[in-house]
Sequence to fold (678 residues):
Amino acid sequence: MGSKIGGQELEKELSGVNLLPVDAGETQKVAPVKKWTIEDSENLYRIPGWGEPYFSINAAGHITVTPQGDRGGSLDLHELIESLKSRNIGLPLLLRFSDILSDRIERLNACFSRAIARYNYPNVYKGVYPIKCNQHRHIVESLVHYGKPYQFGLEAGSKPELMIALATLEPVLNPKNDQSEALLVCNGYKDKEYIETALLGTRLGHKPLIVIEQLEELYLIIKVSRQLNITPHLGVRAKLSTKGMGHWGNSTGDRAKFGLTIPEMLTVVTELEKVGMLDSLQLLHYHIGSQISAINVVKDAIREASQIYVELVKLGANMQYLDVGGGLGVDYDGSKTNFYASKNYNMQNYANDIVAEVQEACEEANIKAPTLISESGRAIASHQSVLVFDILSASEVPCQPPQPTGEKEHLIIRNLWETYNSINEQTYQEAYHDAGQFKEEAISLFTFGYVTLKERARAEQLYWACCHKILTIARQQDYVPDDLEDLEKIMASIYYANLSVFQSVPDSWAIDQLFPIMPIHRLDEEPTNRAILADLTCDSDGKIDKFIDLRGDIKSILELHPLRYKKDSSSPEPYYIGMFLVGAYQEIMGNLHNLFGDTNVVHIRMNPKGYQIEHVVKGDTISEVLSYVQYNAEDLFENMRRRTEQALQENRMTIEESQLLLQDYERSLRRYTYLVSE
Ligand SMILES: *Cc1c(COP(=O)(O)O)cnc(C)c1O
Fold:
């Protein structure tokens, strides 16, 4: 299959692009040049697909954030960054919009209540937020606050998360009023202490639902609840046979890491019955993996789970809750397809299918419909965070117009020159192979001493000139042959980003997750460069070279604007890139590769006058990251002082040099781990 390098409208408008200095005139058709508009940027970066209703472009060509969708005010992201910078809050910077969080909770609940009304479902929906998705205090606290009107609860997957939940979720002091109560779903591996803590939470007014994930936990729970004399509310996690998809596809099936097989579930029922505790079994839980892209997988799972639920009721369990876990997807590429970075359904379809399937199964079996629980993390937390970073510099593929060759030049150079001249719409594919071969030959001749360093340089220049010319032609074709697919990649500029991929977007590195990435300003200007992003770490994996594209494709370059340089300055004017939908999982999975620490975080909240800064969480300083690896800043500084003193004594250093070194060292210890542009 041929691949598409360009072929979109914008290709036809290429004019004076910096990749075109080579004989551009001969291939360029003289067409009226259409001015680049913000609509062109919208289409190119696909904002309506992934950004609605929160992100769009304003007339100034800047990204606008509308945290409450069409119901509230908006702010200009570029202005916000400038104003934060003037308050000494530097880049990279993670922005969190609390109103988006609130809007997500509201939307999820609205979808379920519409579905419940539509199908006349005779029970309610009570969602919980899985803390593991983003545990930061301000987020969990906001979620609990915004979730209150919906009795939105929390899900803990470990002991530390349980501890957050117990202390953050508001207990219900009037336990008779069951309706007002948010749930606390207790998942994950459990030891005695976990179970004791969860059970004692009941005494505070919480409703912990302890989900049995492993058979061994059952015996421990029976023992501990008897010792404490507290009746537990229990759940079982089922290993469904429905196959998940994508990265988390093996969260289901007999050999899944978590959950009980059907025979094990029956053992739970008989064991509980034996000790007279079958009344405690109230919940059925499953989780088929995150980011489910296809609605039929959601349907298959709920259908299977509904039957298990019905059977558990028939076995005499006091069933009350059906918990469908996470998996509600986020449309990262905006394509609305079942591609892994997308999903072919919306939140309402999701809620409808769950409600309808459970309703049907319960009606058929003539049993009471359960309270529905979902544990959506990604769909709640992703949209609220935007990472903004600046570009420090860019490196472009060398591209000088080639000089004609003389008779006397080396044969290999004359061959390359001839190839260069022969390139046209008919020959460009063949020429690409020839040029590559001649370049390889030149290198090999050099290695054996038949070609001088100057000749090799000349050969390489000619090779790049060929590539430029070929690419110019290839971009004008609708489809180009497979073997030219790499050309765009080879010719891409490298934009150096003030960021660590490992700290800020680990999933981009670890599992090739795609996030929408685009400049947050200059969007009324055509982005004429094609680039990949390289981060600050000394790791060749520290780059981003996969970007969202049309219809579930991935493209290997991102269109960016040429950097502008101030007069007499070697550093470029600020150029800001935003990475969107990064609120789920990225922060906590980030690591300290090369000791780049947490970024600055700013919480923004809208108010009638505009916006206000709710919290600023300063990123790590160098002393802080050093302490994570057991260095003490004072000891380090003391060592440096002693060494400078010695160098002074031995006249290896001037007093000014020693002052400068110690001053820089001391200041750096207190500094952000990222680069500060002058
Ligand atoms: C991770 C996880 C979730 C969250 O899944 P999302 O796809 O982010 O909504 C929910 N439940 C359990 C048990 C999980 O492990």
In short: The chain has 24 helices and 23 strands.
